[in-house]
Predict the 3D structure of the following.
Amino acid sequence: MMNENAIEVAILGCGQMGQHILEHLRDCPWVRGITVFDRNADRMESLKQGFAVSTAATLDEVLRNPEIKLVFITASNNAHKELAVAALEAGKAVMCEKPMATTLADATAMVEAAERTNGFLQVGFELRYSRLYTTVKDWIEGDLLGRVLNTQCTYISSAWGKHSSWRVASKTSGGMFGEKLSHYVDLVRWWVGDEVEEVYATCAPNVIPYYEVHDNYHCSYRFKNGAVSQLTFMMGPAATFKGDPLQNAVSQQSGDGHMLRYMICGEKGAAETDVFPRTIKRWEFGDNDWGQTSAWVQNETWDPQYDFAYFHNTHDQARDIVRRVAEGKPPSINPRDALETTRLCFAAELSATEKRPVRLDELK
Ligand SMILES: NC(=O)c1ccc[n+]([C@@H]2O[C@H](COP(=O)([O-])OP(=O)(O)OC[C@H]3O[C@@H](n4cnc5c(N)ncnc54)[C@H](O)[C@@H]3O)[C@@H](O)[C@H]2O)c1
């Protein structure tokens, strides 16, 4: 049943991600109506066939409609800043997909626009809504791991992006770190609860020859509180996936070379999340006559029907954002927090390019 405070929303950019958002919001009790705008008019027409949505011929039509309170920006990365700043200045609340923008200056301008207009801006880091990772956050907040000291993430995937995709060109993508890895550094910042001081990223020559962006990294970063993190990423080795990476990905990519595993080590214990075997584990450290001990105390799994909730939980994120805007609540992720993840991504890219460690305060 529709909530009495339900609002109208718009989706700006209706490719793969925009259509996911549309699916998520179709029967959302907080949504009274959905308008879509894409610069590709044919795409909008085909959406009208499948969904009960209105279409806007221009961005201005969306921005001038006082009924529309919230816009989801799911256009390609190079359009985010222009759309977000225009929407905030028109008084709309904004949910913008990651990465915030293709440059740090543009991402900063978005946050400044939100602050100047006293507006709502939330960036799409949906892994903060995913049960696999909120479980780790709960363990940390419940002091089961102690202070987080050391994390390691290994991520191996198949290639995405056709030869002509905006994703593979540096200018339209903004770099692989923002486009693909921002989720995974954002999680670690969230778990550690501190800011990164210095990052060092190295890259080998690309496996995928037509990518302008890097397709691999070994990246280390050190937090101000002394914690360290490592992220190893390789794109290309896992078997080519022909489906939609947000749908049935866990089942279809399991055992074919895809890997996405974290080990999180604290002073009192450790945790491991492993997407493809669907496991989450916890260890508790102790001490006895023998010396330091580690006991394996938790080992959970989940049913494949809950993959969405455990992994890329864009569903709950989209609905939570609509509810927050309808109820006049602030974003669940502060835009300055999202900007720090963005700064870390650009620092990692700079480090890889200049082949040297980069301090985050070098990037203003
Ligand atoms: N959170 C996630 O896990 C996740 C997953 C996939 C994509 N994304 C993000 O979602 C965004 C879209 O990705 P996608 O896979 O849907 O790309 P896509 O290429 O399938 O769709 C992008 C759409 O944006 C439209 N567009 C581009 N510029 C526009 C503008 N100025 N105004 C209106 N429409 C415009 C294009 O016509 C296209 O239809 C990207 O920022 C991407 O990083 C996030």
User: Anything to note?
Assistant: The mean pLDDT is 95. The two ends are 47 Å apart (CA to CA). Residues 12-18, 37-40, 43, 74-77, 79, 97-98, 124, 126, 179, 312 surround nicotinamide-adenine-dinucleotide (CB under 6 Å). DSSP finds twelve helices and 15 strands in the chain.
